[in-house]
Write a structure and sequence with these properties.
The chain is built from four helices and no strands. It is an all-alpha fold.
Length: 192
Amino acid sequence: IVNVAFIVWQVLAMATAQHYLSEINEKLESIYRELKEIKLKINNHRLGKLQGNLLYLQRCQQLMEKGNLSFNELKNYLSQTESIFRESLQIINSCKLDISSYLLNNMTSSSDNTDLSKNENLISESVEEYNFLQQTIYFAFYINAFCIFLQKTLGSSSADTTAKIMQETWKDIKIEFKKNKEKISNGIEKLK
């Protein structure tokens, strides 16, 4: 009777543990989905800012081409190009930080995980996110080039300085992209 009671106790303990593990897994999945939604909102926010700035710059260029702007309006547009340039640099750096902290950590930590399907999903999501962030950076550089073009068109004395800032940032980003590509390749190789 003692052995039967002990076995029944063990079965009940295992069932209870399974129940709690199931609940924990459900909560973790819910947290994971919420984090993905937050990440999507952050990415959409960045992209929305860049798209709005591009639209503003295009309209500015159209008005300049028509020649309907007063000196004060031209001065206002010039100051806006500097603000847009700075905001684009902030987005570039934000994306760069995301790549470094989130994606590359996932690439290296996933190689410690023994579940190959989870590794493949994590790698796939990380590469997809990396590509999105990289495209966002390119888009921000395009907007910065547009700002410099308008600054030069408006005769801004700061256009050359702005161009130098962009060149230095581009050099840094190219080096960063090269390092990241190597880290991603090494992370994928560890899985094989």
